[in-house]
Amino acid sequence: MIRCKRVYEAMEPGDGQRVLVDRLWPRGCRKEALGLAAWLREVAPSDNLRKQFCHDPALFDEFRLLYRAELAAHPEHWQGLLAMARNGTLTLLFAAKDESYNNAVVLAEFLEEELERCGPPSSPVCYAGEF
Question: Burial level of 24, CB count in 10 A (0-12/13-18/19+)?
Fold first, then answer.
């Protein structure tokens, strides 16, 4: 399960693995208070894309397309998040005021689609003794 949550909201037991997915450290937050499993700056939108979007809901559809292209180009930045999501709840933390139009929402959608596309992990069939 993948959730999105503002970094300023209180930590809850149901949050599971908490990962900050913003490029910039959120104002007024102490590292110890966040209970982070990781801070993945590189999974956040590039500086250029972040500045271009500027949290304008009117630009969100274009931002979503461009950010998803950045994610697709760098699977090494988000593949670890898939493992976390497979093992329990993953909470993507973000600092934006708007809870509907932000990078964490796009990242969560992207990761959910990847989990669905990849399916459950499997092991190779053992053919020992059949040859």
Answer: exposed
